[in-house]
Amino acid sequence: MLMRTDPFRELDRFTQQVFGTGSPGTWSRPTAMAMDAYRDGDRFVVAFDLPGVSPDAIELDVEHNVLTVKAERRPVASGEHVEMQVSERPLGVFSRQLFLGDTLDTTRIDASYDAGVLTLHIPIAEKAKPRRIPITDADAGQRRIDA
């Protein structure tokens, strides 16, 4: 049997229950998930921490440049003879919304899930990539701009 002796952890758990931000069964709203986001060349990469979440419990939606990630962590142990001794891992629905700029190509988002991390690769749209514009000599009587 596992025992806990940290009274401050119980105080924190009680506070979360009172304000509706923790403890299984009292979730009144989705909880945000931790993420990292960075640019890697011609794409943005976003990584979400979702340990203990099954890939089939993850939803990705894009609508009007808003990316919504929803995930649900379900209890691991359940059944008639299961008696929970310690329950510190949050259960329930986790949600995060990202507002994507017009410079990203939302039609070609690639998603993968490995070791509890959901990774999204979002390419930069062709229209947003820098391009060189050649300049011709005005004295030659021609003005040509290549895009």
Structure characterization notes:
This protein is mainly beta and 147 residues long. It has a domain of 77 residues: Immunoglobulin-like (Sandwich). It has 1 helix and 7 strands; from the N terminus they run αβββββββ. Strands 1-2-7-6 form a 4-stranded antiparallel beta sheet, with no helix packed on it. The chain has a 3-stranded antiparallel beta sheet with strand order 3-4-5, with no helix packed on it. It starts with 6 loop residues before the first helix and ends in a 24-residue tail after the last strand. The N terminus is likely disordered. Pfam families: HSP20. Belongs to the small heat shock protein (HSP20) family. This is SHSP domain-containing protein. InterPro entries: A-crystallin/Hsp20_dom, HSP20-like_chaperone, Small_HSP.
